[in-house]
Amino acid sequence: MSTIYIFNDSFKLQIIAKHIYSKKHTSVFDLSTSDQINPRNMSKGKDLKPHIGIFGRRNNGKSSIINYIVNQDVAIVSEQAGTTTDPVKKSIEIFGIGPVIIIDTAGIDDNGELGEKRVQKTLEVIKTIDCAILVIVNNEFGFYEKQLTMQFREYGVPYFILHNKADIHPVDDIFIEKIRDFSQATVIDFSVNQPERLDVLIETLKHTIPKTVYQKQSLLGGIIQANQVVLLVTPIDSEAPEGRMILPQVMAIRDVLDNDCICIVLKESNLQQYFNKKMPIPNLVITDSQAFKYVNSVVPANVPLTSFSIVFAHLRGDFQNYLKGTKGISNLQDDDRVLILESCTHQVSCEDIGRHKLPKWITEFTGKNPHFDVVSGLNQVADMSSYKLVIQCGGCMATKKQLINRLKPAAMANIPVTNYGLAIAYINGIFERVTEPFEK
Ligand SMILES: Nc1nc2c(ncn2[C@@H]2O[C@H](COP(=O)(O)OP(=O)(O)OP(=O)(O)O)[C@@H](O)[C@H]2O)c(=O)[nH]1
Ligand code: SF4
Ligand SMILES: [Mg+2]
Q1: Closest among 377, 327, 331 to 351, alpha carbons compared
Q2: What is the value of pTM for the model shown?
Q3: Distance 42 CA to ligand 2 centre (A)
C-alpha cells in the first residue's frame, strides 16, 4: 500500500513530512494557498455561509461594490487596473439574507504570465460559490463576459449583471437587447456613487441566490420525528479535540433538539451498558463511522443505525452518486489509483482516517494493493481520469455546491464516488443497514 499526501499548509507539511519520512511509496505535495479553510478559525462555521463571488474586467469597480455594500473600506480600490490580485474573502451580513462570504476577484481580462495565473484563480472561485455578480461598465459585453457566463452555466451558479459606473455611462436599452443573445440574467444599472441604489442591489441579490443556500436545512429532518429518541455515539479517544466535541457532533446534537427530539450522547464504551440497562430504545443511532463495526454488533438489528458522515453526505454531498459508487471498492485491483478528498485542512482526526485507516482497511478488504492519493482543502484536482475510485470526506466544512462541483469531473468520467462513512460501512458489511434510514 502506498499513500500520497497533499497539504495546503507548509508548516503542517513540515511536521507530517517528519512523520512519514521513512515510509515507502509515499509522495507529498504542497498546495499552499492564501485561501484555505481552517476549521479551528471557524467559530461560526464561516465556510458554510452562502458564498457570493464578484467578477468582471479590471477596474470595473468590483472592490468598490464590496465597500459600498458594507459601507466601509474593506477592499483596496484604486484607479490602477489590476489592484486585486488574489481572491479575497470577506465575511459580511446582508439584511434579509444573513451572514454571507463575499469573494472579490482579480480582473478576468488580466494578462501576461502572472495575469493568466490570476485569471485561473478567479475561474477556480466559480466552482466554490452559490451566486455571482458579473460587473460590466460602459455598455460593454464581449469575450470576457461571455466566458464568465459560460462558466457560471457550467457550474450551475446563478448570477446577475451589474452595469457599474452608471454616473458616467448609464445602461443603454439597445445594449440590454444585445446581451439577451447570450444571457437572460437580470441587468441592473448601478453606481457606487449613488447610495440610493443599495436597495435594488440587495433585492436582486436576494432574488438570485437560491433560498435553500441561506435558509437553514435540518440535518435529520425527514429522518426523525418529534419526541423520538436519538442516540449519538461519540468516541472520546486520543484523536478527539481537548475539551470539546467536533463540529458534526455539535451540529447533530443541535439538530436533534431543533426537531424536538430527545438526544442521548455517550461514548462507545458505554453503549453495551446502555442496552443492558434497558434504557429507552432509540429510534435512531448515529455513530462515528470509525466505530461502526463495534456499534453494529451492540445495537439491536431492529434499531436504525447510521453515522455522522453519512448524515452529512445525505444533506450536502452527492448522496445518490455515493450510493451507486460505493461498491466500486470491490472492483479495485493492484496499482489502481484511489483519490481521497478532504474538504478542509488541519483536521487531525480526519487526517488519520483519510491517510491511514481507510487505505489500510480497503487494502485488507480487497486483498489488493491500490495506490492512495490524498488532497486536502478545496483545491481542484487537475486530472481525475486516472482514478478508479474517489472517496470524499464527510464534508462538514464545505457547502453542497463546493462538494458537488469538486466531484463533478469524477461524475463526468463515470468514476465511482463514495464517502468515508459509506466506504467504512461497506467494508464492514453493513452498507444496507446504515443507508436504510434514508430510504423513506
Ligand atoms: N465614477 C465611478 N467610478 C467608480 C465606480 N465604481 C468604481 N469606480 C472607480 O473605478 C476605479 C476602479 O475601482 P476598483 O473597485 O478598484 O475596481 P476593480 O474592479 O476592483 O479593479 P481591479 O481590482 O483592478 O480588478 C476606482 O478609481 C474607483 O473609484 C462608479 O460607480 N462610478
Ligand atoms: S470531514 Fe472533511 S470537511 Fe469535515 S473536518 Fe474532516 S476533512 Fe474537514
Ligand atoms: Mg479590485
Answers
A1: 377
A2: 0.72
A3: 13
